[in-house]
Design goal:
With about 170 residues, the protein is mainly beta. It contains no helices and 11 strands. The N and C termini lie far apart (about 80 Å). About 10% of the residues have low confidence.
Length: about 170
């Protein structure tokens, strides 16, 4: 396709000098990049509530210790030091030293859970000890042994098994 003349310059087959940069015609040329054509990176805004970092009220811990078990995922074992576990799939585990569990409508949890707050929209089977609150949503089912300080059950929610109410000791945990 190209040849070189006696001075070492590239020449077309017909003996003329190429009109564009070397390699033009070999492959398509990319158009020049335009500024402003980059997609914007969306970043989640941080929420600053003005509460001290050691405040352990619901939602103040952020996402740093959040474990999400998605749909069609199965997890077996021990879970500890987790601020929040969100179950959308299937979990067979023992939870200790955790703060909160949320079982979505599609989620199933089997095992033992010692937590502060539990919200059940799916199925919980086993033993749960909620030091503060257990919420059973209208689509939720809890089967097994339940120890709880406060209990909320929406219309349609089900609890079957042994239920023990933990007495309120008056200290604000």
């Amino acid at each position: 396709m190209f040849t070189k003349n006696p001075e070492g310059q590239q020449m077309n087959e017909d003996g003329t000098e190429p009109s564009g940069p070397p390699g033009e015609g070999d492959a398509p040329v990319m158009p020049a990049r335009q500024d402003g054509a980059r997609p914007a990176i969306v970043r989640r805004a941080r929420e600053y509530t003005g509460t001290p970092a050691d405040d352990r009220s619901v939602g103040s811990y952020g996402d740093s210790k959040k474990l999400i078990v998605g749909r069609d995922i199965a997890l077996n074992g021990e879970i500890s030091a987790c601020e929040k576990l969100v179950v959308e799939g299937r979990v067979e585990a023992n939870m200790k030293e955790c703060r909160e569990i949320e079982i979505a409508e599609s989620g199933t949890f089997k095992g033992e859970a010692e937590i502060e707050i539990a919200e059940v929209s799916g199925v919980f089977e086993g033993s749960v000890s909620a030091r503060k609150l257990l919420i059973v949503r209208s689509t939720g089912r809890v089967n097994g042994k339940v120890r709880v300080r406060q209990l909320e059950v929406e219309r349609g929610g089900e609890i079957s098994g042994e239920i023990e109410i933990i007495p309120d000791t008056g200290d604000s945990e």
